[in-house]
Write a structure and sequence with these properties.
It is a multi-pass membrane protein. The protein has about 325 residues and is mostly helical.
Length: about 325
């Protein structure tokens, strides 16, 4: 996985709308921007780093959400968490005039956390509690509603609609290390909480009664793990926009590769998520050359058939 990620990062730096040579790549890595090729590579380096970080964050967040809810359909996009963060940022930009990345991050995390609580509460209503199918349906309904509200906010503010629309698609273009510096502390805390909850997630996978019998405080354990996922989703959405399906695809593929032990599953999900998003970004540059497709569009093309396959494989009535 590490070798694959390294190869994809090299391709991400080398491939794009402009052809560059190895001399330009070597010069840009040394900090030189004397030629157009070197400047092009220098712009691709932070973009590659952001794609890897965002993919790792979404992969780990999806694994945590599936572990906390014991729901094979759990994903920051399907459960509406990404759209909740997106709506919060759109409202804050349109009505309160926020402009700094640091403010974006706090607002996005608050929106992601509020949406996660809301979807879980709605999915818990009725007989049987928060079943996987009820959570998925509640998340999808919330996503549709929030997407409509984001559109309404953009229509009411034509002066900022263009920027919000581009951000709403989800992408890593225009990344800079200065912008990433604002989200790194939140990502670091989210990764630390998520990886630290690996044993707890293993216990929760056995069922609430068994986890309680093993000494876990189930509600507290779920809450702490969910905080890690919300931090990762909110910080990623703030800087990239809502990118869907990464948190759905990656955990399933990693379970096929190395099993269900979260002590291994979480780090593998981080690497696999980074590989998926960097690879999707490269594909977006190649498919639409000389233009580009945002990475959120590419992951949607990959993730939608994968979602259908999971539903058919698990059978909706068994979820």
């Amino acid at each position: 996985m590490l070798a694959g990620l390294s190869a994809l990062c090299v391709l991400s730096v080398a491939v794009g709308t402009r052809d560059v040579g190895w001399d330009d790549i070597a010069g840009a890595l040394r900090g030189q921007v004397d030629t157009i090729g070197q400047a092009t590579v220098a712009a691709r380096i932070p973009r590659t780093v952001l794609a890897a970080l965002a993919g790792a964050a979404l992969g780990v967040a999806g694994t945590i959400m599936q572990g906390v809810t014991r729901n094979p359909l759990a994903d920051p996009g399907i459960l509406g968490v990404n759209l909740g963060a997106s709506l919060a940022v759109a409202v804050a930009v349109a009505w309160f005039g926020i402009a700094s990345m640091q403010a974006y991050v706090w607002v996005a995390i608050a929106g992601a956390g509020g949406t996660a609580v809301f979807v879980y509460a709605v999915g818990s209503l009725g007989r049987g509690g928060p079943t996987p199918l009820k959570l998925a349906l509640a998340g999808m309904a919330t996503s549709v509603a929030f997407a409509s509200l984001v559109l309404a906010v953009m229509l009411s503010r034509g002066d900022i609609a263009g920027g919000l629309h581009a951000w709403q698609i989800g992408g890593v273009g225009g990344a800079t290390f200065g912008r990433m510096a604002h989200v790194l502390p939140f990502l670091a805390v989210g990764f630390a909480i998520g990886l630290g909850c690996a044993r707890t997630l293993n216990s929760l996978a056995l069922g609430d009664e068994m986890a309680a019998g093993l000494g876990e405080r189930v509600a507290v354990a779920r809450g702490i793990a969910a905080v890690g996922a919300v931090l990762l989703c909110g910080a990623t959405t703030a800087i990239c926009g809502p990118i869907g399906f990464v948190g759905l695809i990656v955990p399933h593929l990693c379970r096929l590769l190395m099993g269900v032990d979260h002590r291994w599953l979480l780090p593998f999900s981080a690497l696999a998520g980074a590989c998926l998003l960097v690879g999707s970004d490269i594909a977006g540059r190649i498919i639409a050359r000389p233009g580009e497709l945002d990475v959120g569009i590419v992951t949607a093309f990959i993730g939608a058939p994968f979602f259908i396959w999971i539903v058919r494989r698990a059978r909706v009535r068994d979820l």
